[in-house]
Fold this protein.
Amino acid sequence: MSTIPAALATATGLGVAGGAALLVLPQRVRGGVAGMLTAGVGVAGGTAGVAALGGSRWSAQVSGLLPLAGAHFEVDALSGLFMAVAGAVVAAVAVYGIGYVAGHGPHGLGSRGGQAALPLFALTLLTVPTAASVSTFLLLWELMALTSLLLVLAEHRARPAVREAALWYAVMTHLGLVLLLAGLSVYAAQAGGETFAALRTGMAGMSPTVRGLVFVLTAVAFTSKAGLVPLHAWLPRAHPEAPSAVSALMSAAMVNLGIYGLVRVGFDLLGGGPAWWWLLVMAMGGLSAVYGILQAAMASDLKRLLAYSTSENMGLVVLGVGAAGLFAHAGNDALAALALAAALLHVVNHAAFKALLFTAAGSVLRAVGERNLDLLGGLRARMPVTAGLFAVGALGAVALPPGNGFISEWLMLQSMIHGLAVPGVTTAIVLPLAVAVIALSAGLAAAVFVKALGVGFFARPRGEQAAVAEESPRLMLAGMGLLAALCAALALVPGLLADGLDRAVEAAGHTGTRPVTGGGLRVRLDEVSAVLSPLWILAALVVALGAVMATVRWASRHRRRRTRARLWDCGGGAPTPRMAYTATSFAEPLQRVFDDVLAPEQDVDVTPVRESAYLVERVAFRNRVPDRIEHRLYRPVLGLLAAAGQSARRLAGGSVHVYLGYGFFGLVALLVVLVVGW
Amino acid sequence: MNTVGYAAIALQMGAVAAGAPLLTGLMRQTRARLEGRAGPGVLQPWRDVRKLLRKEPITPVGTGPAFRWAPLVLVATSLVLAVLVPLISTDTPVRGRADLIVVVALLALGTMALALAGLDTGTAFGGMGASREMTIAALVEPTILMAVFALSIPAGSTNLPVIVAGAADQPARLTSPAGLLAIAALAVAVLAESGRLPVDNPSTHLELTMVHEAMVLEYAGPDLALVEFGAQVRLTVLLGLLASLFAPWGIAATASLAAVLLALVLVVLKVMALGMALAAAEVFWAKLRLFRVPELLAGSFLLALLAVTASYFLGGEGGQ
């Protein structure tokens, strides 16, 4: 009996039966049961993923499950990677979720519908990568969209903004589905079969135009799921408004599946393609990386900031995927495998630290009731564990040494730097730009997370709620602790993942190369002879820290530390919290630097005293940094649609005769078209 | 080999730790003389450190762990850099780990720790300094990485000893357009990263111009000594890095004690020369307005990008 089918069956059983059972259970036990069931789904699915990463494969065909074609499933190392990631995130977030819903009462995530949708959503996250036919894939994809939509809507009673966010999400995700449906249908029709195996064999006889069409349609759909600019508009809306456990799942596991789709269709099914596919992909990735992190730098809503950071990280991943495609096209399989391995490792790392950051933000939201960084502050004293865990996540997100994000960005930079071995003017222009994009986004990410941590958790509380915040319940801390342990493991012993990564890359079609090897403690790139040992860096830092502390203690040995001193502040002394820097003021220099890109809006309203034009009664100043792409791209389209709808109302005058006339003329027109056209 | 290699590392770290305050003293003295002042003498920074270390350590009310640990992290990262960057010898036990990207990241880690400490105080100055510092750091990082990219193309590796050894073997690399552009870009980045004119004035206490100083205003006693010492070590290591990358002559490639000692003398002289040149230049430079700094950094970024392109189009085949 193989592990994979058993684990998958367990996950499915737990998810489906749990979803049904939760609809009838009383509210008192619902949170705990839902959490445990979801954690079970996560553990089971993750086990299957790990088994697949370890080298086992599994495929099955269930003919009765879907009409006409039946359902096809196949698990290889590439699906295994995404399943393992989703499983780990789901398990940890489910534990967190038990504590999260405990104090919430019967509304929001704790509601009957919300709790029933949770294990189902978790199940779809784990099973989408197992699909091996177009219909199975689309069905699971749509189930994932629907269950997540239900969960995004969970708190719609509490805030009207939730409904708007859910509407955006619903529309965007279904536009994506339409594109995906179109792309995969064309592919299946041309290939003469709808299982992935048939698609692979049918690919050879297809014209380049059709293949390009299929790739563009599916790539647009997948990148919109991954939250890439310019199709990211749903992400900074849905992530902040969803309950935090759900945002963690969406941001750490669901967006990954966009990457999965891109890799699966682009490399495995279509077998790579011409350079322009991957240049397009890289352009989107680069744009998202820089634009996403810039918007994050401007955001003062903590969860919105994290959502934009997801856009950035997915952009980096897609940049790596695009580079892999470019190298593969040029025939350098070793470099392609390295770039793809870097991208996949970044998916893993991002999932770990982003889930941790979102759950920590959820703890803050639960304790303070506020997401606005300008009103937070001082939480490290009131919520030390949450603050510490957020710091661990932030260290991962800034891509600096003892954090896990550094390793994948290092790998990515190595693949780009050595990519110039691929001849051609294209690489000579594209790769330096890609390195610049990675470096700029890493630099800005440091500013973003210094802001989030420094303004949100350090200094003194700027709001009344923040001053009386209390630490989260144990289960929430336990869930976050699991994620933090995952981050630490990924940061210190990334070499353990090397074999799994190599198998996943191989499953994507780059056979015969082992880009990354590691003996547990370090990452070695054999093709380009580079080595990174994160544990060594940490050890060196710790030794240096110890030496410095010992020296200072020895040099000032007879002095006790005074802790009751007041802040000097240039002689001003005892500044009030209102004088401290807020997130908005922290971001102001960056806003000025990127003025042309961000196009901030400023309003000054001056109200003079009634008798005099010179005496001012009130001055109001407003500064907003709107999402510019949204303004330029979505507004006009939405406006056009609204205008069309408005003018169409004139057609419906209310007169039955007119409606009958429409029917008559419609029929005549149709007949004429049929006669003339066919 | 091993004993000499370890000796080289110990020598290098000792020289950097002992020499960093002296370098600052030398630079201040140079400035003073050029401005017609007598100056406090080269040893003054060491006297300052000794005085500060004897004072009472103070943790102000309302600050947290970030404030306590930032000076330690800053000095620790700087010391690790002092070990990693090949100044004396390219044949040391740590040569396999001296990756340029790691070096850039460790620099950024120290910067970030201080910025967090600045925010942790909750004062207006601390936040202002942190905000400005992170803005500059965010723009410096791409420049440094691009310059790294340009340098690593001819060497075929991002490993620092490999780059330095390659440059020492083939001096023609340095005079190529790519090498010159990369030097210029990296020099500007070093000025920004070490908080010198024209990006930041290390001796200012005027609120409109402060960047680094505003972040560390609340430090006193031993903590202040650490902050100052950390900044001095960073400057020394960065100048040493410039010297190693662009004037690598004399660096020990083999493990002989005589070569190591000669290299030590040479690198001290090179860093002293660079420091005095920088100090002399600072006499004539004015500090840029804060919002003109990004233009300077964008310019140096462009130079680095050109360096990469040039090294690909002009020296791609010649390098190997």
User: Anything to note?
Assistant: Chain B touches chain A through 85 residues (CB under 8 Å). Confidence is low (pLDDT under 50) at residues 316-320 of chain B.
